[in-house]
Amino acid sequence: MFVIHNPTAGRRNTRKLWAVLDWLVNHGAPVKILETRHSGHATALAREAVASGAEMVVAAGGDGTIAETVAGMIGGRARLGVIPLGTANVLAHEFGLPNHPRELATILSSPRSAPLWPGVMQTPTSTKLFVQMVGAGFDAHVVHNVDLQTKRHIGRGAYVLQTLRELQRYQFPDLTIRLDGVEHRAASVIVSKGRFYGGPYILAPDAQPGEPGFTVALFRDGGPLSALRAGAALPQGRMGALPGVSLLHASHVEIGGPTGLPVQADGDPAGILPLSVYDAKAPILVAAATQAENKRGEAMLLHSAPAPWWAAQ
Ligand SMILES: Nc1ncnc2c1ncn2[C@@H]1O[C@H](COP(=O)(O)OP(=O)(O)OP(=O)(O)O)[C@@H](O)[C@H]1O
Q: Which residues form the DAGKc domain (predicted)?
């Protein structure tokens, strides 16, 4: 088992990591730890681990580290394990991963798995895999501006503070969103693989992370009041029921807007608009709290990336 650890994730607290690894080693699991040295390094490490025949690659970090690790595993046979050490740890909620090190280690050493079919986001300058969500509009603006020192000290609270600051500054420009070719307008958009958002909060109750395609949350109304209303509804799981919010399903999402508007992927800054989102070429299996069979089999259909609309101009 290869463990890829991002030492800069979350509050940099490694107590849980060592407790999980102690348990695994004491129960006879062969564990090799690889530490990331820079952004993107987890992908190269995961690729090497898969090439050397690893059956399981464990991402120890937040959702960004998981996404980078998965990017190096797609198309291979290794399963993904997760030791959540990030700030929001949204994917850990999705797969029912416990906080307790012994329970987590038990999951990593059991064959129980659930499929995850990641997404790919493409801008004119970069292509990046994501495991949980991509956003543009107000939430992406907050992610780009959040103070990293505050995030390290108070975790998710840093996003709440930044949200309150940005409410007064953000202009809420209109975005153009094409869902499988059909045009919509909204002030903000979140393209979600899974059900959760921002931690343990439900955004898209019907999302199926193991299937291709996305649930797209459109926030049609701009302005601080609408953003505040959405923020208040999120912890109650009522965001999708708000007037002005629609949850739609799509396989291919294109987002355009004013030049320079930021994009977030899995809670980290991920470039600027325009953006095209589509399925990764294959799913992977994740060591999870509950078993879910991958009905289509591991070698599921290979999707070819649709040409983004800006390429045709
Ligand atoms: N050694 C490193 N030095 C600096 N940055 C790194 C290093 N290793 C990985 N990274 C970057 O750190 C970013 C943030 O990591 P990650 O998302 O795992 O933690 P987080 O932001 O605290 O958690 P979450 O996404 O759950 O909120 C990743 O996008 C990755 O590119």
A: 1-125
